[in-house]
Amino acid sequence: MNVGDTLPPLEIPVTRTLIVAGAIASRDYQDVHHDAELARAKGSPDIFMNILTTNGLVGRYITDHLGPHAVLRKVAIRLGAPNYPGDTMTLTGTVTALAGDTAEIRVVGANGIGRHVTGTVTVAVPLGAEEGVA
User: Alpha carbon of 69 to those of 57, 72, 75, 96: distances in Å?
Assistant: First the structure.
């Protein structure tokens, strides 16, 4: 792994089930994440993904690429355009810094209306563990 390396993109279909399941799994019972009628009453065209689900998907993106020995040390993200059902979020990443066994990766997740998530992930990968990673 070198500074400037890019991770392969990961396309995630944003389904109604993914949005609702992510909200329930993270104990986020806000109606805008599971009730389309109430979401519309609050000004949203539909339900939308919560930040905890997005955070989990960003973590998955990094660990799927770096393998089972990777340890997330810090995930710092900011939300932008909502993820609505029927869209696809494409995650991309670029290695921005390396120090020993630690890497910082800039992550962007974009959907059909813009950038859903931007941020950085600091991840520790024991030396030699990244060999053979896809």
Answer: 18, 10, 17, 20
